[in-house]
Design a protein that fits this description.
Blueprint (H helix, E strand, L loop, with lengths): L11 H9 L9 H20 L7
Protein backbone atom coordinates (compact mmCIF):
# COMPACT_ATOMS: atom_id res chain seq x y z
CA UNK A 1 0.00 0.00 0.00
CA UNK A 2 1.20 3.53 -0.77
CA UNK A 3 2.43 5.48 2.25
CA UNK A 4 0.16 8.20 3.60
CA UNK A 5 1.85 11.39 2.39
CA UNK A 6 0.53 14.78 1.43
CA UNK A 7 0.33 15.09 -2.35
CA UNK A 8 2.51 18.19 -2.26
CA UNK A 9 5.34 15.98 -1.04
CA UNK A 10 4.87 13.26 -3.64
CA UNK A 11 6.27 13.52 -7.14
CA UNK A 12 3.91 12.88 -10.02
CA UNK A 13 6.12 10.02 -11.13
CA UNK A 14 5.79 8.30 -7.78
CA UNK A 15 2.01 8.64 -7.83
CA UNK A 16 1.90 7.23 -11.36
CA UNK A 17 4.02 4.27 -10.28
CA UNK A 18 1.76 3.52 -7.30
CA UNK A 19 -1.31 3.80 -9.51
CA UNK A 20 0.11 1.45 -12.15
CA UNK A 21 0.93 -1.08 -9.44
CA UNK A 22 -2.60 -0.83 -8.06
CA UNK A 23 -1.31 0.63 -4.80
CA UNK A 24 -3.11 3.98 -5.07
CA UNK A 25 -6.22 5.42 -6.64
CA UNK A 26 -5.83 8.13 -9.31
CA UNK A 27 -6.01 11.64 -7.90
CA UNK A 28 -8.61 12.70 -10.45
CA UNK A 29 -10.72 11.35 -13.26
CA UNK A 30 -10.04 12.16 -16.91
CA UNK A 31 -13.15 14.36 -16.87
CA UNK A 32 -11.82 16.34 -13.90
CA UNK A 33 -8.47 16.76 -15.63
CA UNK A 34 -10.20 18.09 -18.75
CA UNK A 35 -12.20 20.59 -16.69
CA UNK A 36 -9.04 21.77 -14.98
CA UNK A 37 -7.27 22.24 -18.32
CA UNK A 38 -10.20 24.28 -19.62
CA UNK A 39 -9.97 26.51 -16.55
CA UNK A 40 -6.22 26.97 -16.92
CA UNK A 41 -6.53 27.72 -20.65
CA UNK A 42 -9.29 30.26 -19.94
CA UNK A 43 -7.19 31.94 -17.25
CA UNK A 44 -4.25 32.33 -19.66
CA UNK A 45 -6.52 33.62 -22.42
CA UNK A 46 -8.15 36.13 -20.07
CA UNK A 47 -4.75 37.30 -18.84
CA UNK A 48 -3.58 37.83 -22.43
CA UNK A 49 -6.67 39.70 -23.60
CA UNK A 50 -7.71 41.39 -20.37
CA UNK A 51 -11.26 40.20 -21.06
CA UNK A 52 -13.50 37.62 -19.39
CA UNK A 53 -13.49 34.23 -21.07
CA UNK A 54 -16.50 31.93 -21.26
CA UNK A 55 -15.70 28.34 -20.38
CA UNK A 56 -17.72 25.78 -22.34
Amino acid sequence: MAPELKISLIGAGQMAEWHLRGEAEPLSTPEEALTLMKLVDAAYCSAETGQPVKIV
